[in-house]
Amino acid sequence: MTGYIIINRQSLSEEDYACYRSFYCGLCGELQQRYGRAGQMTLNYDMTFIALLLTALYEPDIRLSKERCAIHPLKQREHRISVATGYAADMNILLSYDKCMDDWKDDGSVAGHREALALERFLPGIREKYPGKVSNIQDSLGRLYAAEDRGDTDIDRTAGLYGQVFAEVIAWRSDEWEQLLRDLGMCLGKFVYLADAFEDREKDEKKGRFNILSALRAGADTDAAYEDMVFSILNGVMGDAVRLFSLLPIVEYVPILRNILYAGVWTRPNAFRARRHRKEQR
Q1: For FRET with 122, which of 97, 190, 205, 239 sits at 20 to 30 Å CA-CA?
Q2: Nearby residues of 15 by Cβ (< 8 Å), 6 or more positions away
């Protein structure tokens, strides 16, 4: 369940895209420095958003550099790194480990198991730095997996458990913005969980796996009606997220963050829906 909180490249200026990419590259570099190649391979857009959002809100000192890497060896790329980037890197490892273990449990993924073993050695250090946060995240994930195992089709309750994971991750500090960030994280986590379920439903049903949206599809007369219901739910969740974001006193990087929340998050759901329609018309 990663890669949904992304930019809409077409509606982002070249300047803002370069800035966003510098955060992405900065997180990549931070993962490599802290966790080596295994950590670098877990890089994703969702945690880039969190690094960007927390940097914009708390305005920590930023270290700028230009570096080459194995992926882009010929041209230096700008890196933006702050303490928020380091925090996002730590959370990225934690969530990536749990995702790999879940893939292994659900699909018997050998690659997932191998990656989980590569990341496992970093967990004690992350637990030591964020004991309460790690405990809360793992508790929410455990309750989510239990809800899926018993087939809990209450969308708000089950998706809300993944929302609690995002809420814990995004609430970096215990301060005046903590609750607002938790509420925002809850919305984003729900959106990611449901958008992922929308993409995976048919595959999950073929493999006899739980999917939170299967009951919704069973109750709909047509695929189009089902899709309309899913997008209505997603719209409601993101509407709340946008409203909460507007309450944060953010000055820097606002066009990028708005691009992500207003347009970027719809990139994958819209693309998946369009692919399904094209397939049906063949």
Answers
A1: 190
A2: none
Q: What's the CA gap between 39 and 29, in Å, rounded?
A: 10
CATH number (domain holding residue 17):
1.10.600.10
Q: Does residue 199 form part of some domain?
A: yes
Q: What is the pLDDT, as a whole number, of residue 143? A: 95
According to the model, what pLDDT value does residue 1 have? 66
Q: Is residue 3 situated within a structural domain?
A: no
Domain that holds residue 105: 9-281
| Total count of residues recorded for the chain | 282
The CA dihedral of 147, 224, 184, 148, to the nearest 10 degrees, is 10
C-alpha to C-alpha distance for 25 and 147, rounded to whole angstroms = 36
Q: Is the pLDDT of residue 56 over 70?
A: yes
Q: What is the pLDDT of residue 104?
A: 66
Q: Is residue 96 one of the residues assigned to a domain?
A: yes
How many CB atoms are located within 10 Å of the residue 34 CB? 17
Sign for the CA dihedral angle at 214, 112, 150, 241 comes to: negative
Helix, strand, coil shares of the chain, percent, nearest 5, are 75, 5, 25
Contact in structure between 135 and 123 (CB atoms under 8 Å): no
DSSP assigned state of 63: E
**Predicted local distance difference test score (pLDDT) of residue 98:** 85
Q: Quick count: other Cβ atoms within 10 Å of Cβ 202?
A: 13
Q: Is residue 1 part of a domain?
A: no
Q: How many folded domains does the chain comprise?
A: 1
To the question of pTM greater than 0.90 for the whole model, the response is yes
Q: Which two tokens stand for residue 158?
A: 């089950």
